[in-house]
Amino acid sequence: MGCSDSKIQAFNRLASRPEFQIWTRKFEALCIHKAEVKRLYQKFAEADMDGGGTIDLLELLTVIDVERTPFTERIFQIFDDDNSGKIDFGEFVLSLWNYCTLSKVTLGMFAFDLYDRDSTGILEDYDLEKMMVDIYGKNAGTSHYAKQ
Asked: Are residues 42 and 92 part of one domain?
């Protein structure tokens, strides 16, 4: 009960900050309802282990139980819109919305753009090798999924 109360108080403090009003306009434009914003804040607060109001890569990976790889680092860099090395609540919500609303086609385009580093519109062999190593790590050469 106390933990829940403190999360509610933390959300209310956040909601009173000027940047929250900017985020709210963006959330509303994307049809993200206030109840959803509150639920997302609970997840954000769970990941914000040090209570600093931002999430760094290690905090995020810990809460979602995912290994740190060059791929997860790259995704986090995309989520970190202001390049601060941390994501605030606004970046968290907008990044989740962007990622979760991708279709199979646009998810493929997203992955393509991650590795077409020279922006030629072509993935060279080294781009594909980098992608496989980033995703599958040292098992890239033997992973059944990587071979498919």
From this structure: yes
Asked whether residue 11 falls in the same domain as residue 69, the answer is yes
Question: Helix, strand, or coil here: 87?
Answer: strand
Q: How many helices (H) and strands (E) does the chain have?
A: 9, 2
Please choose, from the candidates 32, 19, 26, the residue with its C-alpha nearest in 3D space to the C-alpha of residue 100.
Answer: 32
Going from the C-alpha of 32 to that of each of 26, 40, 96, 98, 125, the distances in angstroms are 9, 10, 11, 12, 40
Read off the DSSP letter of residue 111: H
Q: Which two tokens stand for residue 135?
A: 């995703």
Instruction: Look up tokens 């907008």; give the residue.
Output: 94
User: What CA–CA distance (Å, rounded) separates 123 from 90?
Assistant: 32
What range defines the domain where residue 79 resides? 2-100
- The domain tally of the chain equals 2
Q: Which tops the pLDDT comparison, 50 or 128?
A: 50
Is the predicted pLDDT of residue 95 greater than 70, yes or no? yes
Give tens-digit pLDDT for 7-65.
Answer: 677 777 777 777 888 888 899 899 999 899 989 989 999 999 998 899 999 999 999 99
Report the distance separating Cα 117 and Cα 130, nearest Å: 11
> Could you tell me if 9 and 62 lie in one domain?
yes
